[in-house]
Design a protein that fits this description.
The protein is an alpha/beta fold and 243 residues long. It is 33% helix and 34% strand. The protein has seven helices and 17 strands. Strands 2-1-3-6-7 form a five-stranded parallel sheet, with helices on both faces. The chain has a five-stranded antiparallel sheet with strand order 12-11-10-14-13, covered by helices on one side. A three-stranded antiparallel sheet has the order 15-16-17, with helices on one face.
Length: 243
């Protein structure tokens, strides 16, 4: 499933952008879900759910570029397409490395090309091929995983949208050999967390963007703080290299 958020306080452009996206995804035969927001305040609680954000630059009481900068400063990797009625902010907007910068009204061809770039990158995302208990062999994009845990003799994979699949195996081996080490951290004997969905670190727990709290072993607490800080810094460095 490909999750898209559109944030624009102009209802006409909000509806028109959604209409074009629905045409594009249907033509591409891509499973999708599109949610619309008229402010970043309403979008914020669930922003990490989305693979793509279509973001207006000029919003009542807010600035889309400043909001995008806050996302990047928190290590949120959601792809961004800016839409605006003015080209004046183009140079400033590219500082947060958007997929594209599109003038209103959104043009089908330009939007189609931008979405295709986003989808190509997503399909190249590392994925796990697992033999799940529920569905047999399936492909799970690692970017969709919020955290993993071991329950008795089962490894349970929790996706950011609340879905879960389970498989049999050794948790240590699964964490070491299957999960990307740059973004996953084994914070507890029974838990491994995807750092891209961590909103904050509290004493002995990671707070995730979907409201879940993932335990941190007491002996791992200092290391967990360092690992989270290193992840945020590495993300900033990676973005800087694209400039």
């Amino acid at each position: 499933m490909f999750y898209v958020a559109i944030c624009d306080d102009d209802r006409f452009f909000l509806d028109e952008t959604k209409r074009l996206l629905e045409i594009i995804f249907k033509e591409l035969n891509e499973d999708y879900e599109i949610d619309c927001f008229n402010s970043t305040q309403k979008l914020e609680p669930c922003i990490r759910k989305y693979n793509l954000l279509i973001l207006a630059i000029m919003l009542v009481g807010n600035n889309g570029i400043e909001y995008a900068e806050s996302l990047r400063s928190r290590g949120i990797k959601t792809d961004i397409i800016f839409i605006t009625s003015s080209p004046d902010y183009a140079l400033e907007g590219y500082s947060v490395h958007p997929i594209d910068y599109i003038l209103k009204p959104a043009n089908y061809d330009r939007l189609h090309d931008a979405v295709m770039r986003c989808l190509r990158e997503r399909h190249n995302t590392p994925a796990l091929l697992i033999n799940s208990k529920e569905h047999g062999k399936i492909r799970v994009n690692t970017d969709d995983i919020a955290y993993c845990e071991v329950m008795r003799y089962e490894i349970v994979i929790h996706s950011i949208d609340g879905k879960r699949v389970s498989l049999y195996g050794t948790f240590s081996s699964f964490c070491s050999n299957e999960l990307p080490q740059e973004s996953f951290y084994r914070c507890h004997r029974s838990y491994a967390v995807n750092l891209q969905y961590v909103e904050s670190i509290n004493r002995y727990a990671f707070a995730l963007s979907n409201g879940v709290s993932v335990p941190i072993a007491k002996n791992n607490y200092n290391d967990a703080k360092k690992r989270f800080a290193d992840y945020i810094n590495s993300f900033d460095d990676a973005q800087a290299q694209k400039i």
